[in-house]
Amino acid sequence: MGRVHNLIEQHGRQGALSFVEDRKEVDVAFDFMSDETGGVGFLFSGWCQAALPHRKQPDDHVWVIETDHTKLLVEPGSLHTSKGVVRVGVPYGSRARLILLYLQTEAIKTNSREIELGRSLRVWLGKLGVSIGGKSMKEVRDQALRLSRCRMTFQVAKGRQTGIVNQNIVDTALFTNDDTGSLLETVKLSEGFFEQLKHHPVPLQESAIRAISNNSQALDIYCWLSYRLHALPGDCQISWPALYAQFGRSYARLRKFRENFLDSLKIALAVYPEADVTATEQGLILRQSNPAVPKRLARKAGLTIAE
What is the mean pLDDT of residues 241-251? Predict the structure, then answer.
């Protein structure tokens, strides 16, 4: 268990604030520790190694993340309107990540490519503490449209083998219209993406997602650590330039990235008490840790965690 979690157990939420400078770290850890709702979500392992942008990109911008083991290419889609064909930019931010997580979680739990959204998505987002009205719902609609239109390519290397997933995230999407605009009601995942998801799902604690649902970088780090830590054979050192290549695409300078990354790392570790991670001047040291989702919960959800 991490230091902040021990402090909360010993001194309570308010008492822990006397020992920790970052109030957000304490608040997130407390919310996670006191969450009794539970639940397990699932994410394709590729999304744990390369992620979407945090902020809106130009509508014609192609998003590329390239690391030693993974390359992600996200291409914007297009939409036919009364004014002609317009570009739909790539998805971004925490809302896009939550929608992706919902789609993949439902696909794994139902073993079906076709997922009903509408009210089900709104209820699920509400459980994560996301407002489902006004500006927030408009953001959800926008990100759902972007996800349904974009095209992505994952290239993942494992040993001497390289696998490529090159197609749309979804095959078909059904929208309905109301007074506030279009709402994505039904999605059918592409067959290739669905097969990759079934073969390489990463279990995540929904209580952790709830606690950091508005922090896209903390979500990325939590998903990455959930994927990496339990499978490490020993200590693993990752340099700041390597972390910058994976997580810093939105930053012009490594120094600014490092500062913000360390802040988000604290938040991610606040919802992963078992994680053994040390930050140094050279980068991060990762050590083998218990999985973010205990194996008994993963088995109960119908998934076996690979050793």
Answer: 94
